[in-house]
Design goal:
This protein is α+β, with helices and mostly antiparallel strands. It has two helices and three strands; from the N terminus they run H-H-E-E-E. It has a three-stranded mixed sheet, covered by helices on one side. A hairpin with a 3-residue loop joins strand 2 and strand 3. The model has no long low-confidence stretch (mean pLDDT 89).
C-alpha cells in the first residue's frame, strides 16, 4: 500500500475526532478537487461537482452526469462514526 495514502489517512483520523471535524476536512478535500457548495447554484448541468452538508455533521458529494435519471444513478456511500465520549447532563 502507498505510504502517502496511509499517512494521509492517519492525519485524517487524527484531525477528525468528531463528525463536524470530519466534515470540515472533507469539505477542504472536496474543494481542492473542484467541488462547490450546492447553495452557489440555481441550476446544475453535466459535469458540475457539488456538495451539501447537514448540520455540519453529514456531507454528500455529487457529480452531475449526462444521462437521464430514469436510466439509473450510481451511489458510493459511507458514514462518519467517530469514536469519542459524549458527556450529557441528566
Amino acid at each position: 500500500m502507498d505510504s502517502q495514502i496511509i499517512t494521509s489517512y492517519k492525519n485524517f483520523l487524527t484531525n477528525g475526532k468528531t463528525e463536524r471535524e470530519c466534515v470540515t476536512q472533507i469539505i477542504k478535500m472536496a474543494e481542492k478537487n473542484g467541488y462547490k457548495d450546492i447553495s452557489n447554484y440555481k441550476t446544475l448541468k453535466k459535469g458540475d461537482k457539488v456538495y451539501i452538508t447537514k448540520m455540519n455533521k453529514a456531507i454528500a458529494l455529487f457529480q452531475i452526469g449526462s444521462g437521464a435519471l430514469e436510466n439509473g444513478i450510481n451511489f458510493l456511500c459511507a458514514h462518519i462514526d467517530s469514536p469519542r465520549l459524549d458527556a450529557k447532563q441528566n
